[in-house]
Amino acid sequence: MKKSFKFANVFAGIVAITALSIRDAPAHDAPSVEYASLGDSFSAAAGVLPLVPDSPLICTRSQRNFAHIIANRRNYVLTDVSCAGAETADLYREQGSGIPPQLIVLNDRTDLVTLTIGGNDQAVFGTAATGCARELANLPQFENPCESFYGTSFVDSIKSTTYPDLVRALSTIHYAAPHAAVLVVGYPWLVPESGDCIPQMLVAPADIPYLRNLQVVLNDAIRQAAEATDSIYVDMSVASDGRDACQPRDRRLVEPMLLPTQFMPLHPNLEGQEAIAEEVMKAIDE
């Protein structure tokens, strides 16, 4: 890891004064790990029940999101402020009534920060998914109606606006939590590289590579922002390859547009959250 955990550098030393003092010395618990989970619906696990009690309903924050899975397995002290719909700006501003800026939970005692962020900036994910479904009606006229309509607008927006916003966000997290390791997670694949994904996804077959490339560009922007800020990028591309929303129920990590098994389509299911947790823990242990 580029930045070691504060707790990983702590070691216990016993000074042998007498054999009796060694035998009678009280046991000390290992220092607790202060863990903060930030970010959007992929961090919150929107759609995975049950929800965290007393959390804002709009955040759809699950008790089984990847941060809770990690904290439970490793006995970390978790503060989870992830919230569905969060953009990078919501790290600094109120996302809605009763939802304060996410960064206020960070301090110099924070050891670990994880987040997914960037997909909601300029509404890239939402507009692309719903827009491609809408443009499907133009399929007889255009083989790839979504790409024909939107062109490079999403990619241009990611490169010109989302990337610098990600750099600013990650830099500010480091400033607010100077001793923390900051892990930013890439988005798992929503669609395969190519193929027909109807009816799971209302996207023309020729537009599947277009949506896939959009994710490639977004995840690459997240990775570059992580490198620019001494953060750690958790790559989900291998773990989620072949397990996108177009796959059968027992294979996919992300739920499809039509007939999802949870109330939030196009988001990781419980298996997806567990897969993210595994990749994050691997990054922690490196």
UniProtKB/TrEMBL annotation:
Gene3D superfamilies per UniProt: SGNH hydrolase
Q: Where is the SGNH hydrolase-type esterase domain?
A: 38-275
Annotated disulfide bonds = C59-C83, C132-C146, C197-C246
UniProt-listed InterPro entries: SEST-like (IPR037460), SGNH_hydro (IPR013830), SGNH_hydro_sf (IPR036514)
Catalytic residues (UniProt): S41 (nucleophile), H267
Q: Which UniProt keywords apply?
A: Disulfide bond, Hydrolase
In which domain of life is the source organism classified?
Bacteria
Q: Which GO terms describe its molecular function?
A: triacylglycerol lipase activity
Q: What does the record give as EC number?
A: 3.1.1.3
Q: Which PANTHER family match?
A: LIPASE 2, SGNH HYDROLASE-TYPE ESTERASE DOMAIN-CONTAINING PROTEIN
Q: What is this protein called?
A: Lipase 2
Which source organism? Answer: Nocardia aurantia
